[in-house]
Specification:
Layout: E1 3-13, E2 25-34, E3 37-43, H1 44-57, E4 81-85, E5 90-93, E6 95-97, H2 109-115, H3 126-135, H4 138-154, E7 157-163, H5 170-181, E8 186-192, H6 203-218, E9 224-229, H7 236-248, E10 252-257, H8 265-271, E11 276-279, H9 285-292, E12 297-300, H10 302-308, H11 315-320, E13 325-327, H12 341-351, H13 356-370, E14 387-390, H14 397-400, E15 407-412, E16 415-416
Parallel strand pairs: 1-4, 1-5, 6-7, 7-8, 8-9, 9-10, 10-11, 11-12, 12-13
Antiparallel strand pairs: 1-2, 2-3, 5-14, 14-15, 15-16
Helix pairs in contact: 4-5, 5-6, 6-7, 12-13
Bound molecules: N-(iminomethyl)-L-glutamic acid and fe (iii) ion (FE).
Fe (iii) ion binds near residues 99, 101, 256, 330 and 332.
Length: about 425
């Protein structure tokens, strides 16, 4: 097992709440990584002392293990402790992007261009991506997906969810779920994205298909079931039936709700015990009260408002009301074709009233809550060693320097990427 001591961390965001600080911030810190897990987190001075005694204990064991900085990859010295100098950089948990739609064909740059001259966003464009996705081969989709995964890693995202929803036939939804499962365990079956054109006059037949054959084909590859509960997509009543069918097949519910206007999505998500309701752009007081009294996370997707020129959700109001807020990219070719979690943080701070620390928490620990994961989103003993070194002295720089690629490197499951 590889053991690595990451030292000289200028500011460490642990997300283990301490003295009223939800980010559990440490200065001049160190992290010990054993295999794919965090073994220890603490003050750099304590690490140096422990390392020195480790040196003494192992002095007869051959190679020295002093705390010298090294650029050698940790894997090079198996069973020995490698010491890596973070150079005073800020270190944060890897981003947890709990909402993406990354398996698709084609793009819709023409729609984006039209929106920027005043054409409103219409979710009907989803059907164009469905056509392009159905026309793509498995290998084409797989290659595209591999490119997106590399893009996520380069930007510090170490855990990500992927939804189906651009196939909308049994065979196409099954292959999207299967391809997504090749790169993440957080796969969401979204057969209820929109009613495909060929069922426009027979929506109840399509919903029956989603709840039965399509669900049976996709459930083995999936953890979650999602529904786009919105005017023009699925009603609350339809969504409830679809989510219940998913739950009966062992999937856990999450909901797209209140994106394009007020509606019942949020209240449905809370009533169904969903892990998360995503978008939350148009909320009333009843929605906020329901969320505040629930275990359902409000996942905000500011890339959508940025790319569709919609009003941003009021994150400040949600947080002040006691709602748990996550940030995610919603990366998809229609409403938000960006996979950048640093951009979500910058938008959340500059447009949605979040503090930089709240936004970083929401993009890490918040995403983990939205995926009901207790092994990612924080840096503490026993958790996955997923962490990001920033080319910056503090996490605030993620919002302070929008558009600047501040991710120096990411460690994923204890391995530098
Ligand atoms: O989350 N809202 C529904 N689905 C996506 C948009 C998909 C698309 O436009 O292709 C979303 O915004
Ligand atoms: Fe989405």
């Amino acid at each position: 097992m590889t053991t690595t001591l990451l030292t000289n961390i200028g500011e460490l965001t642990t997300n283990v709440e301490q003295d009223g600080d939800p980010c559990g911030t440490l200065h001049d810190a160190a992290v010990l990584i054993e295999g794919d897990r965090i073994a220890w987190v603490g003050a750099g001075a304590d690490a140096a002392a422990a390392n020195a005694s480790h040196d003494r204990e192992s002095a007869s064991g051959g190679r020295g293990l002093g705390n010298r900085p090294t650029s050698r990859p940790p894997g090079a010295l198996s069973r020995e402790m490698e010491v890596v100098d973070a150079g005073g950089r800020a270190v944060i948990p890897g981003f947890v992007d709990s909402h993406t739609h990354l398996v698709f064909g084609g793009d819709r740059a023409d729609e984006f261009e039209a929106r920027m001259t005043g054409t409103p966003y219409a979710a009907g464009g989803i059907r164009r991506t469905v056509a392009a996705t159905r026309a793509a081969t498995d290998d084409e989709l797989r290659a595209r997906l591999g490119g997106f995964v590399a893009e996520l890693h380069r930007q510090g995202t170490t855990t990500f969810e992927i939804k189906t929803g651009y196939g909308l036939t049994v065979a196409d939804e099954e292959r999207l779920a299967r391809l997504a499962a090749e790169v993440t365990r957080e796969v969401t079956f979204l057969g209820a994205h929109v009613v495909p054109a060929e069922y426009a006059e027979r929506r109840h037949v399509y919903i029956d298909l989603v709840c039965d054959e399509m669900l049976r084909a996709c459930a083995p590859h999936s953890r979650w079931i999602d529904v786009f509960c919105e005017r023009g997509a699925f009603t609350a009543e339809e969504a409830r039936r679809i989510l219940a069918a998913g739950v009966a097949h062992g999937l856990e519910p999450r909901v797209h709700g209140n994106q394009l206007g007020p509606g019942e999505g949020v209240r449905l998500a809370v009533a169904m015990g969903a892990a998360s309701v995503d978008h939350c752009t148009y909320l009333d007081d009843e929605d906020v009260t329901a969320l505040a009294g629930s275990n359902t996370v409000a996942t905000l997707l500011p890339g959508v408002e940025f790319s569709t020129r919609q009003p941003y959700p009021d994150a400040r109001h949600l947080i002040d009301a006691g709602v748990t807020v996550a940030l995610a990219s919603d990366c998809n070719p229609g409403s938000s074709f960006t996979s950048s979690m640093p951009l979500m943080i910058a938008l959340a701070v500059r447009e949605m009233g979040m503090t930089p620390s709240e936004a970083v928490w929401a993009a890490t620990a918040g995403g983990a809550r939205a995926l009901r994961r207790d092994d990612v989103g924080a840096l503490a003993p026993g958790m996955r060693a997923d962490l990001v070194l920033l080319d910056a002295p503090t996490r605030v720089h993620l919002a302070y320097r929008p558009g600047v690629p501040l991710v120096h490197s990411a460690w994923i499951g204890g391995a530098p990427s």
